[in-house]
């Protein structure tokens, strides 16, 4: 079962990597994802806000092949149709996208669905969706240039998620090699990063370094 495999990958991955070509220092998403996979990424989200559907489709076809070969789970931000068109493993949706139950009915039972949450009432709403979605995003933890308009939810929200979430969760927003230990101290063992990874010259090395920090934190 693909969805079960994705759930397992989510639990094991440590680093949940996300694309952003505009922050990738001139490299294409395909180049960046190759390096992420080389670094051991097992859960990848394709996230592009301003490309044409045609361009995203072509790019995602390529990323589908690469992720499949690496046995990595591949989800697409926002675009359910694009995820279906390239046979991605699932989608990641936000509070203002189609409701999770509707997305589940479109995708069927074997795809993974992630849902962004930003505050306690979102977390409570996710309680009602444990049979519909697979994981939640928790953040933005810190202010971030990647999502400038978003108000940080802070480490306090991470602690709330740790205490209350019935679903697996990933902490996101402004997390890098320097502050990752603070985030981990709130409880999460799955950390999402965009800029901290894609801006680096040695992307594979940075993925390994972040992953190592998560692994070693458990041993402290
Ligand atoms: N959702 C909440 S914060 C964020 C998203 C997509 C952006 C995270 O980017 P970065 O560069 O890791 O701060
Ligand atoms: Mg989104």
What is the H/E string? HEHEHEHEHEHEHEHEHH
Bound molecules: 4-methyl-5-hydroxyethylthiazole phosphate, magnesium ion
Radius of gyration: 16 Å
User: Which sequence of strands runs across the widest sheet?
Assistant: 7-6-5-4-3-2-1-8
Mean pLDDT: 97
Per DSSP, the total helix count is 10
Give the end-to-end Cα distance, rounded to a whole number of Å: 35 Å
Shape: globular
- What class would the helix/strand composition place it in? alpha/beta
Percent helix among the residues? 40-55%
Quick one: how many beta strands? 8
Biggest sheet architecture: 8 strands, parallel
Q: Low-confidence stretches at least 5 residues in length (pLDDT < 50)?
A: none
Amount of beta strand: 15-25%
Please describe what this structure looks like.
This protein starts with a helix and ends with a helix. Strand 2, helix 3 and strand 3 form a beta-alpha-beta unit. It is built from ten helices and eight strands. The chain is of the alpha/beta class and 220 residues long. Helix 2 packs parallel to helix 3. 4-methyl-5-hydroxyethylthiazole phosphate (TZP) binds next to helix 9.
């Amino acid at each position: 079962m693909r969805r079960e495999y994705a759930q397992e990958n989510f639990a094991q991955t440590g680093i949940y990597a996300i694309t952003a070509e505009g922050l990738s220092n001139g490299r294409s998403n395909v180049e960046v994802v190759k390096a992420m996979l080389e670094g051991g990424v097992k859960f990848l989200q394709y996230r592009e806000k301003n490309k044409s559907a045609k361009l995203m489709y072509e790019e995602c076809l390529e990323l589908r092949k690469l992720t499949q070969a690496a046995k990595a789970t591949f989800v697409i931000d926002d675009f359910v149709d694009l995820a279906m068109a390239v046979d991605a493993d699932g989608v990641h949706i936000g509070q203002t996208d189609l409701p999770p139950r509707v997305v589940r009915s479109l995708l069927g039972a074997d795809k993974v669905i992630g849902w962004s949450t930003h505050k306690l009432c979102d977390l409570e709403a996710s309680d009602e969706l444990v049979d519909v979605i697979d994981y939640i995003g928790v953040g933005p933890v810190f202010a971030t240039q990647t999502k400038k308009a978003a108000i940080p939810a802070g480490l306090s929200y991470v602690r709330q998620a740790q205490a209350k979430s019935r679903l697996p969760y990933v902490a996101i927003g402004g997390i890098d090699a320097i502050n990752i230990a603070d985030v981990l101290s709130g409880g999460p063992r799955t950390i999402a990063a965009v800029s901290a990874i894609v801006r680096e010259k040695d992307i594979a090395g940075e993925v390994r370094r972040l992953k190592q920090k998560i692994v070693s934190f458990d041993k402290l």
